[in-house]
């Protein structure tokens, strides 16, 4: 089932549900509705929300997942074609450990969903020299039992002759790293959620009525309300708009332009496993996956981006810079055309830690986001973490501290 068929089916079933007592609550808090109200309402079906909803559903909760555009839309940060999966995280051990667990969880979910999601590529970090952060990555990976290889410029040239390594003094390879088909993964998780009895609503929601320190419901555009016992707002780059006073200064939303460059016909040097996923200061890139072309991503872009309304069209100056970079790192691709582009946005916190915490005004509302360019890989494990926080189950206190609002 592709995304269009999936949304058609789920929206149709939602139509039936929204007109039933479980989702409309004009008479709230009438007891009949309270009995049937979903235990948890998750708003946002990106990497944070869809996995949270799936985890909670699997734990037996009644869950409604609400997304303005549906899971895997091109406006969501999680709606891009590919994201990297790696354990290397500098000295940030809690994220490294979560990423390591997530690697296994991705494999299990891929088997369960029955769709090809993971492409083994390895990940190569390039640098001019051994920086403290590169050394920290290597020693952390070693401590966690994750294989690495330190490569000299000579090793790099021998192993990856399709790349040029001008200015590179060292490469750190994490051979077990991979790339995940991101959009497909979000859609597959959304489908699993619905298959397991979750309710999906393709609607925009905002906080509705509250009583004391409890949020009672969310209000959909058009006035329908969804009541719940617990709420998770996992709205990615929309969070600062939804809660401007709380998050306006805590989460910034810059834009990013992504380019796919064609590879010559019959040339397999730029496909996995011949070419790895890699990163360096200023750029990172992916091999040509599913014939899309080599993906080149600058780490610069517009300082603010409006995810609902801004045009997703690349700018002439970023095209020029990406071309110059391509010619430097992949001389054999210098004359190749751009085959696709994407314009995406980040939701960055100041210290790049996620935010997962209670809303200060409501005890039953959890905010989950601030992915800061690195949350996707954690999805299947992050969903468990956020889900447990949402329903008050125990979690790692050190992680709780790291991702609190007031830090
Ligand atoms: C260019 C780029 C490259 C990246 N590379 C990597 C990588 O290689 N590896 C990695 O791990 N991470 C990577 N990331 C980060 C990762 O993609 C994000 O951290 C993650 O996708 C964020 O997920 P999210 O759920 O917070 O937000 P989103 O995916 O944006 O999801 C939010 C959802 O909420 C919905 N929504 C918003 N407001 C409402 C509302 N009011 N009502 C209903 N629904 C609403 C939206 O429709 C959307 O679907 C990258 C990010 C970017 C931009």
Q: What small-molecule ligands were found? A: flavin-adenine dinucleotide
For the secondary structure, the number of strands is 22
> What is the CATH top level name of the largest domain?
Alpha Beta
Q: Globular, elongated, flat, extended or rod-shaped: what is the shape?
A: globular
Beta percentage is 15-25%
Helix content: 25-40%
Please explain how this structure is put together.
With 407 residues, this protein is of the alpha+beta class. The chain folds into three domains: 3-77 and 183-251 and 352-402, 3-Layer(bba) Sandwich (FAD/NAD(P)-binding domain), CATH 3.50.50; 123-175, no CATH class; 254-345, 2-Layer Sandwich (D-Amino Acid Oxidase, Chain A, domain 2). It contains twelve helices and 22 strands. The strands form five sheets. The protein has an eight-stranded mixed sheet. A hairpin with a 2-residue loop joins strand 21 and strand 22. The longest helix is centred in the first third of the chain and has 21 residues, at 93-113. It is globular. Mean pLDDT is 92; it is low at 11-37.
